[in-house]
Amino acid sequence: MTGIALTASVAVTAFGGAGAGVAAAAPTVSTFNLFIPGTWETDAAADPTHATGALAEVARSIAREHGDSATVYFLPYMARAFDNGRTYADSKASAIANASQVLADRAKADPDLRFTISGYSQGADAAGDLAAAIGGGEGPIPADKVLAVGLLADPGNGTAGQKVIGPSARGIGIADPRPQGMGELSGRVTSICAPADLYCSIDKRRHPVLGKIGTVLSEGAEEVADAVETAIDVIGAITRIDYAGLGADIGRLPQLIGVGDLRSAHRVAGRVNAQLRPFVKLADTVDYAKTARILGLIPDKTGLAKVGARVCRVLDRVDFERTADLVGGVQELTWSAAGAVGARVGAESLPESEVSVEEVLDLGKELASLVADTSVDASDDEEADAEARAGLLSELVSPEFKELGKELARIVTKQAITDPASLIRDAVTAKDFYSGNAHTNYAKFVVDELGRSAITWLGGWLADTIDTAGSESEGDSE
């Protein structure tokens, strides 16, 4: 993203500063005040001059106090957690990349400009990472250009070099503290976290599974919550599959086509499609490798979660979209070819239709190649073909997959499991993150003896820090 050059007058007018008739009351320096909103509070096409989300009133405080000398910028970025096919990690990475570009562009345009950086929730996660990089000498601007960093509900809470404001958290951030600390920015970074807010204050002894998941993912609470819910969906789906039947049907399809029994091939393809449907439905949203890691962390005495993790590792090697397209093609073509005829039709005597003998036989050959064992070493000339075959139907007819199916069936029968998803919910529930309103109530969360809320305190602290820098700058000039 290219940094958008905002004039001070535009920024301040938008936030109720000098445009509202309030002039700066003290000596000041020119500042660029970057705000990174939280999940779902903004998007990549948002207007950066428009205050939004939990930090809007903080920005207005700066604008009221410092007028034309303060440019306020609300970072446009993806701001997603797990919806729309994008992950929290993708979203946070876009925030850091966009913010880095904006800061670098502004610093290049005005070498005397000073900066503040603030973030809330996912925005605090990104802002904290950015501050750690700047403090370590690897950021987009030098550390001596940064006046202050304010982090609200930071999933990386507990990072060395942060100054805690308000009641102490009961634990650390769900994504774990940043190991490198704040470096040269130590003492200029403040962190506010409500003790009941599990995004930034999770006691991993009391919530060991959620804590482990957060550590493994190294991501925010939204992603942890989604990963748990996905694991619940997947464990429910994989226990409903007839593994032996699925493998047998996939193996029979190319044989039925080869001998010309197209009506039977149509019927079998329909059964395979029905069995694959839950996985196709999940394919756009499920990362099976990640789900396997999550299930592997679930403390389940029945063994279902552990076997489920092994199943997910196999499913991770299956291209469900391509597999479903292929089987669906078989179902459609065999219906067109044999639908008007009796029980059995030879490929050599297809009825008149738009489907040719070659089309049906070609599908049969492709099915046969995909079902074939791909574990043998390919020559240089065969590598591309082996890569195309690997990870498709052969995985679903493999001995490993069939044995996992048997093991799942044994566990379900022995333990009399009627609701597999409940095992995960009993062990760890993502709803812990959404209980109460601690994560969204910082406008009422009191942080000091004067009764100021987190939002009021943060706005006042940033404005005062800019005042102090202005006074020091005026003293130096004298």
UniProtKB/TrEMBL annotation:
Q: Organism's domain of life?
A: Bacteria
The record's InterPro entries line, in alphabetical order, gives: AB_hydrolase_fold, Cutinase/axe
Which UniProt keyword terms apply here?
Disulfide bond, Hydrolase, Serine esterase, Signal
Keyword Mitochondrion annotated:
no
PANTHER family attached here? CUTINASE 4 (PTHR33630:SF9), CUTINASE RV1984C-RELATED-RELATED (PTHR33630)
| Family recorded in the similarity comment | Belongs to the cutinase family.
The name of this protein is Cutinase family protein
**What is the species of this protein?**
Gordonia westfalica
